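JOB MANIFEST
job_type = single_chain_structure
chain_count = 1
residues = 565
[input]
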Amino acid sequence: MNQSDVPQASNFFKVFLILLLILAAGAFLTFLLFLVGIVLWNVPNRGSNAANGPSQYRSGPNRRLAAINGEPIYADTFDKAFQDALVKEGQTADLNITLRMRNKIFGDMLQRIVANQVLNQFGVKDMKKQVRAMAEEVAGIYLRQLRMGAEMQAQSPEAKQSKRTPEMIMAEAMRGYYEQMRVKAPENPTEDGFKKFYVETLTDPRYGQADEFAAYARIRLIGQRIIERDLPNLSSDDYMKKVTTQMMDVRWIFIPAADYTRTPVALEFTPRALEAARAKTQKLHDQIVKNPSAFAAIASKESQHLSHTEGGRLGWISGGDPRAGLPAIVEYLIFSQKLKELGPVTRITLSDPNPENALASKVGFGFVQVISGPQPRQDLGPNFNWEAAKKDLIPMSVRRYEQSIGEGYLLYMIARADIKCESKEIESYLAESHGQYTRATEFRKQALEQEKDLPGPVKGALSYRVAVGTKDVKGKDRIPLLIAALEYAGSDRSSLHMLLGDTYASIGDKEKAIEQYRFAIIAAGMDEERIRKEVRNKYLQLGYTRGVKEIDEWLAAMSRSSRRR
């Protein structure tokens, strides 16, 4: 190698190193940017949303829909629960099912979150173990019921003639439950094996009952703690004997949590509304203490229970009387108070028997007065023996109290909860549960405008409810909402096309109205004849004689075909 070549090679090597360093630095910077991008992409948007303005809307799958006492509900969790519910019920997301189901899902989530918070406050630990213990209790009760039923059935003439013993009938009943759960039944099922299987069906998600049973267990666990704390004599022999064997003539006043500044009064599940109800109830109580003869007049004017038409009188009440429809805490007051005593202002919850969600119930305050009694119950029969019956009746009554009192306290705590909604869809469910239908419609409109990443079926269902839920939405404003709902109309497609036809007709667009009425006929299915007759009337109103003629010809052909058959 020539000496003159050395500097050239050295310079080339230096240039090469510089280029290599530049490339390495660029690659490292790119890698850093990539890492930062991953971090930013995966950080859930769960913090403050001040930058998003007053709508409080966050985009993305991890946006927060609501927070219950600080515990969040996220859109991805909520939407998954919706899909799971559709699968479980074997349903398709259509205009009628979607909002009703999501409303219920929100109510279930709300109850679960608050129930767990309450149980945590009471120091209840290891919920899985607690739920299983309750499942074993329920399984034992179910087995005893099967056994009693088998013994009674074995006494029938048919069973005696066919020589069917209680054991045979019991085995048939157990096999029937296995089959109901779509599990192959043992040829000779045992009670121990059946009990284990029954517990499994209540606690294992594969059988579709675990969530409902866990909710039931949480409510009863809450009820147990409230009874231990506030009603220690409830399970006593003396109290239970009175509830079971006696009747009391009773009247009462109930005031639910509501906004009493509005006309009409609007039910609300809020701490403010609870305090308003408590203050109002106490005021009424004080008035009756000063003037006892005013009870009936005050109840008639102020009480928010059906009994207000009778001056608050419930009539003769016995323990567990389903006709009264009263929560267990009211029953406890009735059988604990002295005759003529005006009872204390007490927290009371009237549960809706078929709520779309928890907020459909009425939480408030009330008080009870026993007018006369006690009298013996007439429906027990002359051979009833309390000492013989109490072994079964006391545990059964205690379970009823646990469930009713637990549910009432849970709903009260939900009403006291700090519920922060960050979704107009969720706010619409709250408003509808309170009977505030105008506000619910406004929230649905805002949800459609602001919450762009809602699932398609939800957008369709919200659009439909806005389109048909208020008289303010009509004409051109109604058309895009109905069109948005069409994709998810399901069995309602024909009626939706009819609505679209009516809307086009109302703005004078005859051509599009006729088109939509034709689509209604196509989508009619088994109801085609009725729809065609309705469309014929629409055609007459539009002066579309050709369409009227076509339908008349179709109806005549159907009539001829029917006569030939």
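[summary]
Residues 1-59 have pLDDT under 50 and may be disordered.
The chain is about 60% helix and 10% strand.
exit_status = 0
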